[in-house]
Amino acid sequence: MRICHLSTVHHALDVRIFEKECRSLAAAGYEVFLVANHTRDEFRDGVHIVALQRPKGRLKRIFVQPLVAMRKALATGASVIHFHDPELIPAGMIFRLLGKRVIYDAHENLPQDILHSKDYLPKLIRVPLSFLAKLTETVSSRCFTNVITVSDAFVCRFPNHKTSVVRNYPIIARPLMPTAELGNKHVVFTGGLSRSRCAREMVQAMEHLPEYTLTVAGPCRSGVLKAELEALPGWQRVNYVGMLDRDGVNQLMARASAGLLLNYPREDYVEISSNKLYEYMIAGLPVVASMVKSWEASINAVQNGVIVDGTNPEFIATGIREVTENQDRAKEMAARGREAALTTYSWDSEEKTLLAVYSALRR
Fold first, then answer.
1. b/e code 119-148 from CB counts within 10 Å (16+ = b)
2. Is 216 left (phi over 0), alpha (psi -120 to 50) or beta?
3. Is the dihedral of CA 46, 50, 56, 57 positive or negative?
4. Residue 237 to residue 232: CA distance in whole angstroms
5. According to a count of CB atoms within 10 Å of the terminal CB, is the N or C end of the chain lower?
6. CA atoms within 13 A on the CB side of 276
7. Looking at the DSSP assignment, which residues form a beta bridge with residue 6?
């Protein structure tokens, strides 16, 4: 069975899309294509990557890029289209009309995301637009072959009989990666630079930690934000490295003493999972996390980090000191987190769910 994963928002080497879902499907014997933002077409780890050039401007991304992506997806000849962005819901409907089996992979709570994250939208239109998004997802999901979500809390938004949960648990590579080099004054954040992920507060926290350095990996899609951050005194303690592949991220975590997991508290983050949390755990890093309920529940259960108010730079700084300066406590946190990742939070179980969804499509 030939499959095409499709995204106009995510990078082709996105952890969930490429490293977990596409590679797992390719290893299971499926012929897998991935149409997504990338510099070139290539065949990588059993996956045919079909490159999209990232457009300049939000309007082109929303209205033009889906048409380009649709054309490239159709050219693959895939019988199953698995798409990852709400902007592609109309494309998904068209694929269904063309006789394709279509899977919608809902990574986030779109209606709440519109209310709280789309700063470029006037506040007066966010409420009706959020309602429209919810209605669109509800109606369209009834037409799609399957829906996949990242959290149990999202299932209620879609038809229960065709919705599966594939959580963002980490891939446990064998042999196991070495545990992090605790004891240094180096912390990491692997979520890129964005306002909703407390970028400004992270940088300001470094003003209170003159002996520490912070390395940030991941995208920064706002030149305005980056310029603001570079003007802050704390930026002198920040090393921004941009996008890294999996090996690069692993090497970065191995040289750190703690991992940051920060977001503004929002209703749609109550149950959302995070790649970063589980990656830090398997790397053996104590975690400093925002007050997001699902993160609090995991960290309090495992006792592998501390919870802070991510909107307060001083609290972030205090949390970093708390998980790094007591070496015995840091090692205990790291060991508990790694053990929990190995025994409970592993991609192996989620891969089985993903493959079961695709196996049912063969019938």
1. eeeeeeebeebbeebbebbeebbeebbbbb
2. beta
3. negative
4. 10
5. C
6. 23
7. 35, 83
Average pLDDT over every residue of 332-343: 93
Residue 228: both structure tokens together: 């603001």
**C-alpha–C-alpha distance, residues 281 and 336, integer Å:** 8
The pLDDT, as a whole number, for residue 271 is 52
68-72, 170-174, 198-202, range with the lowest pLDDT: 170-174
At residue 71, does pLDDT exceed 90? yes
**Interval 285-323: pLDDT, tens:** 999 999 988 889 899 999 999 999 999 999 999 999 999
Question: Does 175 sit behind a cis peptide bond, omega within 30 degrees of 0 on the bond before it?
Answer: yes
- Say how far apart CA 362 and CA 234 lie, in whole Å: 55
Q: How far are the Cα atoms of 95, 272, 295, 306 from residue 350, in angstroms, in the given order?
A: 26, 15, 19, 27
- The model's pLDDT over 75-123, given as tens digits with 9 standing for 90+, comes to 999 999 999 999 999 999 999 999 999 999 998 888 888 887 777 778 8
Average pLDDT, the chain: 92
Chain segment 256-268, per-residue pLDDT in tens = 999 999 998 766 5
Please, are residues 33 and 6 in contact by the beta-carbon 8 Å criterion? no
Instruction: List all residues 6 or more positions away from 156 whose beta carbon is below 8 Å from its beta carbon.
Output: none
Enter the pTM of the model: 0.76
